[in-house]
Amino acid sequence: MSMEKIVAPKKTIREWPADDRPREKLAASGPANLSNAELIAILLQHGTKNRSAIELAREVLDLAANNIDELGKLKLADLCKVKGIGFSKAVTILSAIELGRRRLSAHRIERMVVRNSNEIAQYLKTTLRDYPHEVFGVVFLNRANKIRHFEIVSSGGITGTVADPRIILRKALDCEATSIVLSHNHPSGNLLPSKADKDITEKLKNAAGYFDIQVLDHIIVSDDGYFSFADEGLL
Length: 235
Hints:
By secondary structure, this protein is an alpha+beta fold.
């Protein structure tokens, strides 16, 4: 007589006790009381035939070594590698991450008056850190050194990007900026400026001078810190 093991059917999240369901738990206790997996599960809305939304969420977190900071660096293709995470779910996760990033950046930029390189560098690290390739951004300031606008003006490859002085100065005039801070990231982690970095800084400094616009600094950021041209006497 064959003795087959009887496996009880797996419960779906809907069959869990109400206190354990992510949505109900959030409604009752607030989002701060949910785990990272539970929050991501709410974004996913539902799982697959064999795995719950929380199980899928845990696999997503595994991609980022269970580190929310690393999660912000994942791309669409990375998320789609998880079986059960299709285009729609991946886009939803990326949208939530971007909203969080923009909220943090907006909070800082609206209140920021630039007094030293460290203050602006911390803002730039938050804004530029997750790009896997080099991007060149410019902070536009008024006479009181309050930030009027920040914009990424060019995007390049893994090893470099090209910034057009004409585009930067046109935007500075449009913003009525009296000074600017140049910035770009180094995905490699190496903070030392290249010859090209020094050349574009000098070129922009000279060009901006014709319009009475001052280049206050050029800041290179990476996960390891930042490099300030002004602090190092390169301006």
